[in-house]
Specification:
This protein is α/β, with parallel strands linked by helices. The protein has two domains: 68 residues, Winged helix-like DNA-binding domain superfamily/Winged helix DNA-binding domain (Arc Repressor Mutant, subunit A); 159 residues, Glucose-6-phosphate isomerase like protein, domain 1 (Rossmann fold), CATH 3.40.50.10490. It is built from 13 helices and five strands. Strands 2-1-3-4-5 form a five-stranded parallel beta sheet, with helices on both faces. Helix 9 links the parallel strand 1 and strand 2. The protein is globular and about 70 Å long.
């Protein structure tokens, strides 16, 4: 989180982040005041950093640092090399995928997740929107929620989704998906939804962006490393699917009996279609 936000932080908060990254063991032993002094800033700047990271406070920050220190060393994201063996590629891509999912899980805010679950449970329609690869995630989300009788749309065409949002109601939800968080079309769709009084949810990589700034509820994936052959993009897709799966299962768990009934009905319908 600190590494991801470093370039976007104000100077004083950047100093604190840099100090923590270089001295994590010492940082967890310090008070906010001491950390401010060590980084040539102030205790107020430490508290502001916690807010910038969407953390509950300084203790939450220290707990996360301590948790990272308990982890075994990660291999890190690795790209493929020219004429690399199939066995080596299997190992690298598997490692990248596992690491991305783990890091994404650690970034999930249960508060924001709970808000998203409640909103989706009560809404009339969910309108998913993503451009390019994120459009595939939107389609996957639509398929999942349709199976439990939740009306859902998914578009990657800006004109189609604009038409849908223009006619959306306050009991609908517009869900914008953009890994980078910089997709202007997704940001504009969420902005339009806000003007219409329609609740909004974003799914982006961690950090401030034009997309999540337009969302009332913000869900994050880890920042994966983009490489020559974009193995990071493969991992980012899995991270987005991971969040959608978690969101879907949380909704399903709170409506368990209804969910089982709807899934059984869809299974029966599919089996009927398959019959010769």
């Amino acid at each position: 989180m600190l590494a991801a936000m470093m370039s976007k932080l104000p100077p004083s908060e950047r100093k604190i982040a840099a100090y923590i990254i270089e001295n994590p063991q010492e940082a967890i032993q310090l008070t906010a005041s001491d950390l401010g002094k060590k980084s040539n800033t102030s205790s107020a700047a430490v508290i502001r950093l916690c807010k910038s990271l969407d953390l509950k406070g300084f203790q939450d920050l220290k707990l996360r640092i301590a948790g990272d220190l308990q982890k075994s060393d990660d291999i890190g994201f690795r790209d493929i090399e020219p004429r690399e063996s199939e066995f080596s590629i299997i190992q690298k891509i598997t490692n990248n995928s596992i690491q991305t999912i783990k890091e994404t899980s650690e970034l999930i805010s249960t508060v924001e997740l709970s808000k998203a679950v409640e909103l989706i449970k009560k809404c009339r329609n969910i309108h998913f929107f993503g451009v390019g690869a994120s459009g595939i995630i939107a389609k996957d989300a639509q398929q999942k929620f349709l199976r439990i009788n939740k009306s859902a749309t998914a578009f990657n065409d800006i004109h189609m989704v604009t038409t849908i949002v223009a006619n959306a109601q306050s009991d609908d939800v517009v869900f914008g998906i953009s890994f980078s968080g910089t997709t202007n079309e997704v940001a504009k769709v969420l902005e339009l939804a806000n003007k219409k009084g329609v609740p909004t949810i974003s799914l982006t990589r961690y950090g401030t962006s034009i997309v999540n700034e337009q969302a009332s509820i913000r869900l994050y994936t880890a920042i994966t490393k983009e490489a020559i052959f974009r193995s990071g993009a493969t991992s980012s897709r899995l991270a987005q699917l991971h969040i959608i799966d978690i969101l879907f299962m949380c909704v399903a768990a709170q409506q368990y009996d209804e969910t089982v009934k709807y899934i059984d009905q869809t299974k029966e319908a599919i089996e009927f279609i398959k019959e010769k």
